[in-house]
Amino acid sequence: MVILSEVQSSNSLISSTLPVNLVAVFVGATSGIGEITLKQFAKHTCQPRAYFIGRSQDAGDRIAAECKALNSEGEYIFVKADVSLICVVDEVCKEIKAKEKAINILFLSAGVPSMDRSETSEHLHLLAALSFYSRSRFITNLLPLLQRGSALRRVVTVGGGGLEGPLDSSDFPARRVPLIAIRGHLCTLISLGLESVAKIAPEVSFVHGFPGAVNTSLFGRIDGILGVVLRAYIYFLGRWICVPIEESGERHLYLATSARFPPASAGSDGGSGVPEGDGIDVAQGTTGEVGSGVYSVQWDGASASPTVHKLLAGYRDKGMVEEIWQHTESEFKRITEQNKGP
What we know:
The chain is of the alpha/beta class. The protein contains 11 helices and 7 strands.
């Protein structure tokens, strides 16, 4: 566990230990965890440049102004886009790559509480499209820029780190996975998917984090009886069980900048982030090894349990990392050809 005061201490050192002009891309940052983490990034960095992507222009304009008030020397660029579509992800990445040569942080938090198995126009399961496929496309598209980042090269995907469960290899998109098992399935898909990318980019570190229960607008968008139950749960017990939104932003900035989560191969400039203080060790990666470059992290900064490491090792031994990569690449190829038309 990393206590909040240690998180805050690390974040306070960002401006003095990391270079000026850090470049970050926040996907899904017009509400909730993405928004509050973007604001923490603005607050703690020197002359940053942040691209943040979402669907609401009004929210984008508001957040850009609020970030400017927090740090007038920063640049905050809103990109309006529906990132559930791979073709739109490609357009957004093309726009960013035309303006930037290097990126330090890619922060991925776009999501939707869709449990009705609805599909996108590209025939991807919407829930999986936003939690896995779209995020994977951002990572692979922007990986060359991340590899050129100076002093910090980090990908953070907000999901269910530490909650990995059984994976149905016959149904990666989770179209038929029972609802009770879908979270564990997708969490394992995300963690092993990050491992597949880390193999070709050992100088970049990857963090799959679990935010815990954070009372955001996401709960208000959950339909049906499940939404009613969860909203009641948060209303009556939220004071005791929820992570405050401000704390969540601080903890996610820590995931994005702390040297507790270094890449497997740091390189000559380190690339690990803010040095850790006394008593804070480098985290165990998803392989169970310290500092392995891919991290599954619980809400309080603790690494995933030995049970999760054992589960992932079993899938790794079966070649599932490679199989997930091949599946993902084949889906991207299918969608790209589909979007080209006849």
